[in-house]
Write a structure and sequence with these properties.
Layout: E1 6-8, E2 14-16, E3 21-23, H1 25-28, H2 42-48, H3 61-70, E4 79-85, H4 95-103, H5 119-140, H6 147-164, E5 169-175, H7 182-191, E6 196-201, H8 208-224, H9 226-229, E7 232-235, H10 243-257, E8 267-273, H11 277-281, H12 287-304, E9 311-316, H13 329-338, E10 343-348, H14 356-372, E11 377-380, H15 388-401, H16 421-427, E12 436-439, E13 442-445, H17 453-477, H18 480-485
Parallel strand pairs: 4-5, 4-6, 6-7, 8-9, 8-10, 10-11
Antiparallel strand pairs: 1-7, 2-3, 12-13
Helix pairs in contact: 2-4, 3-6, 4-5, 6-15, 10-12, 10-15
Organism: Chrysochromulina tobinii
Pfam families: Ferrochelatase
Subcellular location: Mitochondrion inner membrane; Plastid, Chloroplast
C-alpha cells in the first residue's frame, strides 16, 4: 500500500495520497482550533522556558550527547527529516510544567471560542491538581520519560537506513509539549540550511490531538518565517497500514504467542490511546477508523500465518468527565476475565516508543487488574522502538515522498512560473476563512445572516465581561476549582446547568 503522505508547500498545501486530492492544511487538520488564545501564568512560563536546549533538561547523559548532536550546525543539509512526537518530562520537577503545556493546547482541551481566553488558567488548575499523581507514575518508571532518548535513537537508525538507500539525510526531533520543542528543531533546520524537509509524525494514526496539533503549530511557524516559506517540505501525516509497520507488529505478536503451549490460545488485546468521543462524532477525526484499520491489517497478516487467536481492541488513558472512545481498556479486561479468558497478549497499538502509558499504565495498572480478574497468563508486546523492519519502512516512506519536494509551491504563481492546475484551482477560492467551515473533506460556505460582524464583536465582549465577572464570583464563593474538575462551567449556577 502506498505511504500516506502530504505535501506541505509554503504557503502550505497538503496532498492526500489515498485519493490523490489536494487539500488545504486545515482540511487535513480539520476541527483544530487556534492556539493563539492560550496563556500561561508567569510561574509556569518561567519554568517552561528555563531550558534553552535539550542539553539542559536531559537526565540521561547519553541522551544529552545525542541531543547535542541533533543540534550541531552544519554548512548545508540537502534532506532533513523532522520527527514529531509528544514529548515527556525529563525530571519529576518538570512534570507539572509539562502537564501545563499539554493541557493548555486547545486541541487537547477544546473550549468554545468565546472561552478560549480560559485555556491557560484552566490548564494551570488541571496541571496543579494532576501533578502529584503523575509524579508518582513517572517515579515508578525511573523519574522521567524515556521517549526523547528513544526518538533520538530512532532518528539515528532512520539516517542509517536512508544512507543504505543512497540518501544522506539528517533527522531533527520536534516534541510538542517538552524539549526539544518545535521551535528548537526549526532553528536547527534553518542553521543547517536544509533544502528539502520531510515531516514525519511518529504517530501511526492521524488525530487532531496528536499529529494534527503538531502540524497546525508547524504550519503557523512556516507562514510566519520567510526563510521557512522558501523551503521545499512534505508531510507524511499517517502510515497506519504501511507493510513494514504491520509486519513488524505481527512479528512481535507472533513471538509472544509462540511462548504459550497453544499459540492460538491467548487473546490478542490491542490497547490504543483513547480520545474524547466528540472528536470522532463532531470533528470528523479519523483516528478511530485508522486504528481499526491497523488492527484489521495486523490480524489479517497473522491469519495468513496460521494464528487464529481471538482479539479485541480497547482504548486507554481517559481523563475527565466526558465520554471517550469505547470500549475502555479496564472495562474490557474485566469482561474478558469474567468470560473465562486466562491468557492474554497485550499490544500497545498506537505507541512506537515506551513511555508512561506503556511502562506504568499497561505494565503496572492493567497487569495488576488482569491478575485480579483471573488472567494469569498476561504478557505485553514491546513498543516497536528500533525494530529494523519498522525503521526500514519509515525510510522507504521518506524515499517515496522526496520527489514531491521538487514540485513548485503555489507562491511561484506570482513569479510567472508553470504550476499545477490544482494549485490554480486552490487559489481561485477567494472566500475568507471566516466565511466557510470545514467538515471532513468538504468545505461549506457560511452565509452570514442577522447581526453584522461589528455587532457580534460588541456582543462577544459583553459576554466575555459577564463570564469574567461570574468566574470571579465563583472564586469568591469557593466553587471554581470543584466546578472545573467536575466538568461544569464556573458560572453554571446562574443559568441552571
Amino acid at each position: 500500500m502506498p505511504s500516506s503522505m502530504a505535501r506541505l508547500l509554503l504557503p502550505p498545501l497538503l496532498l492526500s495520497p489515498a485519493s490523490g486530492a489536494w487539500l488545504a492544511p486545515a482540511e487535513l487538520t480539520r476541527g483544530l482550533g487556534s492556539t493563539a488564545g492560550s496563556s500561561a501564568t508567569p510561574a509556569v512560563m518561567q519554568r517552561r522556558r528555563t531550558a534553552a536546549s535539550p542539553r539542559a533538561v536531559l537526565a540521561d547523559p547519553s541522551a544529552a550527547s545525542a541531543a547535542r548532536a541533533n543540534f550541531t550546525p552544519a554548512k548545508s543539509v540537502d534532506v532533513g527529516v523532522m520527527l514529531l512526537n509528544l514529548g515527556g518530562p525529563d525530571s519529576l520537577e518538570n512534570v507539572e510544567p509539562f502537564l501545563y503545556n499539554l493541557f493548555s493546547d486547545p486541541e487537547i482541551i477544546t473550549l468554545p471560542s468565546f472561552l478560549s481566553w480560559f485555556n491557560g488558567p484552566l490548564a494551570f488548575i488541571i496541571s496543579r491538581s494532576r501533578a502529584p499523581q503523575s509524579r508518582e507514575g513517572y517515579a515508578a518508571i525511573g523519574g522521567s520519560s524515556p521517549q526523547l532518548a528513544t526518538t533520538l535513537e530512532q532518528g539515528r537508525a532512520l539516517e542509517a537506513s536512508l544512507a543504505r538507500r543512497g540518501i544522506e539525510a539528517k533527522t531533527y526531533v520536534a516534541m510538542r509539549y517538552w524539549h526539544p520543542f518545535t521551535e528548537e528543531a526549526l532553528k536547527a533546520i534553518k542553521a543547517d540550511g536544509v533544502r528539502r524537509l520531510v515531516v514525519l509524525p511518529l504517530y501511526p494514526q492521524f488525530s487532531i490531538s496528536t499529529s494534527g496539533s503538531s502540524l497546525r503549530l508547524l504550519e503557523r511557524m512556516f507562514y510566519a518565517d520567510q526563510e521557512l516559506r522558501q523551503m521545499r517540505a512534505v508531510v507524511i501525516p499517517a502510515w497506519y497500514t504501511r507493510p513494514g509497520y504491520v509486519a513488524a507488529l505481527a512479528r512481535l505478536i507472533r513471538e509472544k504467542c509462540d511462548t504459550y503451549a497453544d499459540r492460538s490460545q491467548p487473546t490478542i488485546f490491542f490497547s490504543a490511546h483513547g480520545l474524547p468521543k466528540k472528536y470522532i462524532e463532531t470533528l470528523g477525526d479519523p483516528y478511530k477508523q485508522q486504528t481499526e484499520a491497523t488492527v484489521g491489517a495486523v490480524m489479517s497478516k497473522l491469519r495468513r500465518l496460521g494464528y487464529m487467536n481471538n482479539y479485541t481492541l480497547a482504548y486507554q488513558s481517559r481523563v475527565g468527565p466526558v465520554e471517550w472512545l469505547r470500549p475502555y481498556t479496564d472495562d474490557s479486561i474485566r469482561e474478558l476475565g469474567a468470560s473465562g479468558v486466562r491468557d492474554m497478549v497485550t499490544v500497545p497499538i498506537s505507541f512506537v516508543s515506551e513511555h508512561i502509558e506503556t511502562l506504568e499504565e499497561i505494565d503496572v495498572e492493567y497487569a495488576e487488574l488482569a491478575r485480579e480478574c483471573g488472567i494469569t497468563g498476561w504478557t505485553r508486546v514491546p513498543a516497536l522502538g528500533l525494530e529494523q523492519d519498522f525503521i526500514d519502512d519509515l525510510a522507504l516512506a521518506v524515499e517515496e515522498t522526496l520527489p514531491l519536494t521538487e514540485e513548485r509551491p503555489k507562491s511561484d504563481i506570482n513569479e510567472g512560473r508553470p504550476v499545477s492546475l490544482r494549485v490554480v484551482n486552490d487559489l481561485v477560492q477567494l472566500r475568507s476563512k471566516d466565511q466557510e467551515i470545514e467538515f471532513g473533506p468538504v468545505r461549506y460556505e457560511v452565509r452570514r445572516t442577522g447581526l453584522t460582524p461589528n455587532a457580534e464583536l460588541i456582543n462577544g465582549r459583553i459576554a466575555m465581561t459577564s463570564i469574567t465577572l461570574a468566574s470571579l464570583y465563583s472564586v469568591y464563593d469557593g466553587t471554581l476549582t470543584s466546578d472545573i474538575l467536575e466538568g461544569r462551567l464556573p458560572f453554571s449556577q446562574f443559568f441552571g446547568f
